[in-house]
Specification:
The complex is a heterodimer. By secondary structure, chain A is of the alpha/beta class. Chain A is built from eleven helices and eleven strands. In chain A, the strands form two sheets. In chain A, strands 1-11-10-9-8-7-5-2 form an eight-stranded parallel β-sheet. Chain A has a three-stranded mixed β-sheet with strand order 3-4-6. In chain B, strand 11 and strand 12 form a beta hairpin. Classes of the chains: A alpha/beta, B alpha/beta. Chains A and B meet through helix 1 of A and strand 15 of B.
């Protein structure tokens, strides 16, 4: 994979337009068909890909317009999880989900979404999945003896899915685990589960850990210190963390706990609509360079852009790209 | 004609209702109302809750389309409390005649053009009141809390404060147990009043903190926010024991985020009492599948203009300019400061609002307050009565959505106020605006806040205020929505 120094990308989702929210709701109200909705998703995804390309990102995602939220898209597909489809009032709500038996091994069909992405871009493509720890927290467990046991089985099913994604051509895979920050006490088993998930998956794998972005606001506060040293056992290539909103204080943890991890550096605050200047972005990167060589830094948004208006998300991506160019130039790599 | 009867006064209004029906039929038979008008009439009585308000005995409200042409819709509201035997016929005739395009407004002095209630001059008076509170109180000899409908603020109830302190302390304990207690614990009071609640809360919290051996009290950072510097000054003595922990901020209750954006996601508790009911409001009517926006125009009855002119030694055509001088703070223009204050109070007493209904033809382009849009409103109205008048509660709504981003992930908002908690309550009556000493009072559309909050990631709950018998207030509190 041929990536420039300090590759730029969004964490996963692109802006969810208001019109698409209404159409999703129309689908739930049976005012439009599944076929029409799928066509709408395709169009929205193509637009999201194009916006990322025009903004100048080096790595693009499909924008995730098909996902109502970061959980249901997976639980709906996860064999053995029972969903109460009447439990939603608004598309963004979570379904009420329950597991009452052992999860069977079966495909979630995610490779199809990756192939769609690959068809419509020539840039490096990243595919994001929600991790087993996060999914476990949204399931009522009526079968497994512990959350760890349920999460481990989810990881086993999704491990096959990741391998299917690799077979389809995925080289950059991101695992989203925001609930780590809400349940730091789970970390010792959650890292084991993460390793089960990525076992034998031949791709560059990052794990995205933020402080939540539900409804565009943080779900928790604190310091990334809780991650260390347990996270050092994770068999992933990259930690993708939010720094723009929270400040760069926790960057020192990478000095304190040396590791082989790359750093996915959040330089864009996705919880406010103010557009960062390129200089602000550059300043975040410079700070990270104090603890990590440029070759190991990816420049990213703090989290998904789901809650941002499209024009704001686009402008933020442009600022991210321009800010990165400033630093590349300073490093003599423009 | 549709006759809508409410029974709000706790006593029979049957005789007035019969009187209204008889009078309307008579006006029809005599040709004062034609058949076409009659078919479009909706008469409602009784509909006004506050004894002091901005209405005439009878008001007739005509519908218009956006081009300014009349549409076949007319609401007539009768305040049965004000009905004097024998006056109904004349009042009805006068009110209906005023809706006719050819009618000359000779009996009133308009103070503005028709506009949204939130942009009406009445809010300038409201603002003046809070910024010149001492002047008003000096002139009347009574504090503003005495002018509240119950004569007292529910915010000061010691038991309520004790419970609030206890639950906040518990939250801090939980955070500490998870090692997530912030080094500085921010609390925001929006609209500080006399400062009494803040003072009582802090004393109670300090005592509890000491008795339980925790050390949270010194970490507290209390932000007292009010748009009136005068009110902030008044509040200071009430918190003097804790003043080192307090910051006094001039803050627009409609947009606390503007002043406090540096505390986004940092504040653990935001509280207010009787603030939302005093923020600019707008009203909407749903009728026959259409939405109509209520436009208002403040005016003085000509008889009052004449009285003011005589009393303050002004030419009648100088009354309106003098009102604008007073709003700009020119109290001394009437000779003495006290005389200026007196003029202000007399104008306020005399001021009325007339209204008209303008059909909302293009909902998506409607100038919604922050936090609301056409699709949300349509969703909300799906469960609402098909024919009703409701508050858009624009100021309260904007305050609400501009406060939520300040909340720490575990933080909450508590608002004690007079809420309509279910849109079906509007079937029973419409409340407001009420006219207090120098300020306005409106019930707040809590049902609307609840829906908007859900889309912003919060569940909203309402609890009737149980600490004072007969209180009409409820406590809105938020919990995080998963």
């Amino acid at each position: 994979m041929n990536l420039p120094l300090l590759p730029t990308a969004i964490v996963g989702s692109y802006a969810m337009p208001g019109w698409l929210e209404r159409l999703k709701t129309d689908y739930f109200a049976r005012r439009i068909s599944r076929h029409d909705l799928d066509e709408i998703y395709d169009a929205a995804s193509k637009a999201a890909i194009k916006d990322q390309e025009i903004a100048g990102l080096d790595i693009v995602t499909d924008g995730e317009p098909r996902r109502d939220n970061m959980v249901d898209y997976f639980l709906e597909r996860l064999p053995g999880v029972q969903i109460d489809r009447s439990s939603k009032k608004f598309y963004y709500d979570f379904y009420d989900s329950v597991v009452q038996g052992k999860l069977p091994m079966a495909s979630l069909g995610l490779a199809q979404d990756f192939r769609f992405l690959q068809t419509f871009t020539e840039r490096a493509a990243k595919f994001c999945i929600t991790g087993p720890h996060c999914l476990t927290k949204r399931i009522r467990n009526q079968f497994y003896p512990s959350e760890e046991a349920l999460a481990t089985d989810i990881a086993k099913v999704m491990n096959l899915e990741l391998k299917a994604l690799v077979k389809a051509g995925a080289r950059l895979i991101q695992i989203d685990e925001p609930y780590f920050s809400g349940f730091p006490e789970d970390l010792s088993w959650a890292v084991k589960v993460l390793n089960t998930l990525v076992d034998g998956v031949d791709a560059r794998i990052s794990v995205h850990i933020c402080y939540g972005n539900r409804y565009g606001k943080p779900s928790w506060e604190g310091s990334y210190r809780y991650l260390f040293p347990a996270i050092l056992d994770a068999k992933v290539h990259q930690l993708t963390l939010e720094f723009a909103r929270r400040g760069g204080e926790d960057l020192d943890l990478f000095k304190e706990f040396p590791s082989s991890f790359e750093l996915g550096l959040g330089v864009i605050d996705v919880k406010i609509h103010d557009i960062e200047t390129p200089e602000m972005v550059a300043s975040h990167i410079r700070k990270a360079l104090e603890v990590m060589p440029a070759e190991k830094i990816f420049v990213l948004t703090d989290c998904g852009c789901f809650h941002l208006p499209r024009d704001v998300a686009f402008a933020k991506m442009q600022a991210m790209v321009e800010g990165t160019k400033i630093v590349r130039k300073e490093l003599g790599k423009s | 004609m549709i006759l809508k009867l409410n029974h709000l006064q706790g006593k029979s209004a049957a005789s007035t209702a019969q009187d209204v029906i008889g009078t309307i039929y008579k006006l029809l038979e005599e040709g004062h109302i034609d058949q076409h008008q009659f078919a479009c009439l909706q008469i409602e009585l009784d509909w006004i809750q506050y004894k002091q308000n901005f209405r005439e005995v009878v008001i007739a409200t005509q519908g218009y389309n956006q081009s300014g042409d009349q549409v076949p819709l007319m609401d007539v509201h009768v305040d049965t409390r004000q009905v004097v035997p024998g006056c109904l016929r004349a009042e009805l005739l006068r009110a209906i005649a005023r809706t006719q395009p050819e009618h000359q407004q000779r009996d009133r002095l308009p103070l503005e053009d028709f506009r949204s209630l939130r942009h009406s001059i009445v809010w300038e008076f409201n603002k003046l009141y809070w910024s010149r509170l001492k002047d008003w109180e000096q002139a009347t000899g009574k504090g503003y809390e005495e002018a509240l409908p119950g004569g007292v603020s529910d915010g000061h109830q010691p038991e309520a404060i004790a419970d609030a302190v206890e639950s906040f302390w518990n939250l801090l304990q939980e955070l500490e147990a998870k090692n997530q207690l912030p080094p500085e614990i921010f609390l925001l009071e929006i609209g500080v009043g006399t400062g009494t609640r803040c003072g009582l809360w802090l004393t109670k919290f300090r005592d509890l903190d000491q008795s339980r051996g925790t050390n949270y009290y010194p970490k507290l950072r209390i932000l007292l926010g009010d748009y009136s510097l005068a009110t902030l000054d008044i509040s200071r003595p009430a918190v003097k024991e804790h003043v080192d922990l307090c910051s006094f901020l001039v803050l627009d209750a409609v947009n606390p985020l503007k002043t406090l954006s540096f505390l986004r996601h940092k504040i653990l508790q935001v509280h207010s009492t009787n603030v939302y009911d005093n923020l600019p409001d707008e009203e909407v009517i749903r009728r026959d599948g259409h939405l109509y926006f209520v436009q208002v125009r403040a005016y003085l009855p000509m008889a009052e203009v004449a009285r003011l002119a005589t009393e303050f030694d002004l030419a009648p055509d100088r009354v309106r300019p003098m009102i604008h001088r007073i709003l700009a703070g020119g109290f001394d223009d009437l000779g003495t400061h006290a005389r200026g204050v007196c003029f202000w109070q007399e104008v306020w007493k005399a001021m009325r609002l007339e209204e008209r209904l303008v059909q909302v033809e293009d909902l998506p382009d409607f100038p919604f307050p922050d936090g609301l849009d056409a699709s949300k409103l349509e969703d909300i109205l799906q469960e609402a009565p098909s024919d009703f008048r409701f508050h858009l509660s624009s100021g309260a709504l904007e305050s609400f959505v501009n406060t939520l981003p300040l909340l720490h992930p575990r933080g909450y908002l508590q608002v004690q106020d007079i809420f309509v908690t279910d849109l079906n309550q509007y079937r029973v009556g419409f409340y407001g605006p009420g006219k207090l000493d120098g300020s306005l009072l409106n019930w707040v559309n809590g049902a609307l806040l609840k829906e908007v909050a859900e889309r912003a990631g919060y569940n909203v709950h309402f609890e009737p205020f149980r600490y004072r018998k007969g209180s009409r207030t409820s406590v809105l509190y938020t919990t995080r929505r998963e």
